[in-house]
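Help needed: design a sequence for this.
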């Protein structure tokens, strides 16, 4: 059973890795042919700002030069690196787990938040400063199992997942312009981190094959795990204790605790990223850069800001961008393509 489970995990991740490598190779080939590291970006102000910043901080002798050890770039995930609609993918995973388990687990089905989910009551799930109902759903579907069992469930789910509107796999929901940006930064000796409100364990299952970001460079929401010996085998068991929510003001805290260096580049898409943008760009002794992805393309993706149907509200950060000099990407006008393969 254990061998079978881990063989399945290896197969799922190998498939995901193959898709990711194919996408990366496709993008790299385009860039090589065009002599352009960001071929999916339109020749507008955001692309020019990115290139100008990178060239200045990497040019030795420049007054803006930043040593390699301090070239830290942080990226939100949902809505910044990949599509977060109609719900963030971790929520989609948790919802599918509830639907799978509820018919056979009466105690689980009786939980008010589970009933809200099954009734499609997103308003109840998203109420509260940290979407308290959604956090309860995540706790019910994530805790009480070993980390290996959790990884196996995520791997099985992501191997089967298809987006309800685009009929795309998980890897195909990443934004091609942001994949190019990740590669461009790494080619210039930046270390790229994900700093997201999503669960760290969930993101670490696929961050490397999808983004070439290793799991140790993923900062996310966490809860305490406990060490146990089960039948003589050491395991880590997920709990709901000491929950840390890596969102809003929690993001700079997570950066300090898990990265230990102040970023010089920050990329987000919502008010939940505002504190991280502020921490990166206000009072930084090094040159810094902040960017917001504004979802304005209802045809190729989605258009939302002040009134999203799920997560990703963007109001105060968008207003702050005007005074802080943060670059705002108009997805419709500034990206030539959205996903790795347009249909």
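Sure. Designed sequence:
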């Amino acid at each position: 059973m254990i061998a079978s489970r881990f063989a399945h995990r290896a197969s799922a991740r190998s498939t995901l890795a193959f898709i990711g490598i194919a996408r990366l190779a496709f993008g790299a080939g385009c860039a090589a042919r065009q002599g352009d590291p960001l071929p999916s970006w339109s020749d507008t102000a955001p692309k020019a700002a990115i290139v100008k910043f990178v060239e200045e901080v990497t040019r030795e002798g420049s007054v803006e030069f930043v040593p390699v050890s301090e070239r830290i770039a942080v990226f939100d995930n949902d809505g910044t690196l990949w599509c977060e609609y109609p719900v963030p993918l971790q929520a989609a995973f948790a919802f599918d787990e509830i639907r799978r388990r509820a018919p056979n687990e009466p105690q689980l089905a009786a939980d008010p938040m589970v009933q809200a989910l099954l009734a499609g009551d997103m308003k109840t799930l998203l109420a509260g400063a940290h979407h308290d109902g959604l956090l309860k759903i995540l706790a019910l579907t994530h805790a009480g199992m070993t980390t290996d069992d959790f990884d196996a469930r995520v791997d099985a789910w992501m191997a089967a997942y298809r987006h309800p509107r685009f009929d795309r796999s998980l890897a195909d929901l990443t934004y091609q312009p942001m994949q190019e940006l990740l590669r461009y930064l790494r080619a210039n000796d930046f270390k790229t981190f994900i700093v997201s409100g999503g669960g760290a364990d969930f993101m670490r299952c696929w961050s490397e094959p999808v983004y070439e970001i290793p799991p140790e460079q993923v900062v996310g929401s966490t809860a305490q795990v406990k060490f146990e010996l089960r039948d003589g085998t050491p395991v880590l068991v997920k709990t709901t204790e000491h929950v840390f929510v890596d969102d809003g003001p929690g993001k700079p805290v997570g950066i300090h605790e898990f990265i230990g260096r102040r970023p010089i580049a920050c990329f987000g898409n919502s008010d939940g990223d505002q504190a991280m943008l502020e921490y990166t760009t206000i009072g930084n002794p090094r040159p810094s850069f902040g960017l917001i992805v504004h979802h304005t393309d209802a045809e190729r993706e989605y258009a939302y800001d002040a009134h999203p149907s799920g997560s990703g509200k963007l109001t105060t950060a968008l207003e702050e961008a005007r005074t802080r000099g943060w670059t705002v990407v108009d997805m419709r006008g500034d990206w030539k393509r959205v996903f790795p393969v347009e249909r």
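Strands lie at 72-75, 191-199, 218-221, 225-230, 233-238, 265-268, 289-296, 303-304, 327-330.
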